[in-house]
Amino acid sequence: MSDSSSVEFPSELAVFGRHRSVRYFLHEPLAPGHLDLIIEAGRRAPTDAQGHMYTFVRITDRTLRDHLATLCADQQHIRDAAEFFIVCLDVYRLRQLVEHRSGEWGMRERISLLYGATDATMVAQNMVVAAEALGYGTCYIGAVQNNVDRIAEVLALPSGVLPLYGLCIGVIDPAHYPPTIKPRIPRELCFFENRYPSHFTPEQLDAAYAAMSIKRDWWENLRAYFAAGGTMERREPVMARAWRQQGLDPQPAEQPCTSTR
């Protein structure tokens, strides 16, 4: 594999080289027909065993959109974007389909969480690539997990359906378009050949910090999100509540996950 710093995207792949998370949108709709194109691009993503274990809830009610923005760390770009979706893993519909043919439901919680999240994310990323290829801006909203249990209730999601994150798509405000793309950790720390390395050297870890600290100290970000007392730790009890509430708690592994309303 070549050094990632030497890679330049050809015109056919330029959309990947210019990706940025956009948080400032003009109050304009998508062009006619573009939403359908973006959704259909998503629907063409791979799905495990043809299960389609995902649901996207499009939020068009402005009052509901405002409420969800408040629940998601009060992020204004959720309100401003032309389109906003709550992306969910969904095994409720799949169970209905199995039982509609008198089958016995066999999916357990761990499998449901893994494959549902995978299916949903492949669809979402296809939509992101399609939207950006059409010239729009996109932004994932991880803060859905701040109040995921309440969001599931607000959207009347049945057991077996769990919100994962949000997705904003909209017309970019050029006055606030990020001028540069964000850095990535060195390729040799995340792409390996044949075996996982036995350890990471201090030099490799320092190289990761150097690559990621071009604009600001990356450690401050890691500490805020991933260290003890950070955002991810604070989300843990909320997520645990939501998993139980939505019938997806992986603790009772011997029982199939429920999906009755």
UniProtKB/TrEMBL annotation:
<dbReference type="GO" id="GO:0016491">
    <property type="term" value="F:oxidoreductase activity"/>
</dbReference>
<dbReference type="InterPro" id="IPR029479">
    <property type="entry name" value="Nitroreductase"/>
</dbReference>
<keyword id="KW-0285">Flavoprotein</keyword>
<keyword id="KW-0521">NADP</keyword>
<protein>
    <submittedName>
        <fullName>NADPH-dependent oxidoreductase</fullName>
    </submittedName>
</protein>
<dbReference type="InterPro" id="IPR016446">
    <property type="entry name" value="Flavin_OxRdtase_Frp"/>
</dbReference>
<keyword id="KW-0288">FMN</keyword>
<feature type="domain" description="Nitroreductase">
    <location>
        <begin position="19"/>
        <end position="170"/>
    </location>
</feature>
<dbReference type="Pfam" id="PF00881">
    <property type="entry name" value="Nitroreductase"/>
</dbReference>
<keyword id="KW-0560">Oxidoreductase</keyword>
<dbReference type="InterPro" id="IPR000415">
    <property type="entry name" value="Nitroreductase-like"/>
</dbReference>
<comment type="similarity">
    <text>Belongs to the flavin oxidoreductase frp family.</text>
</comment>
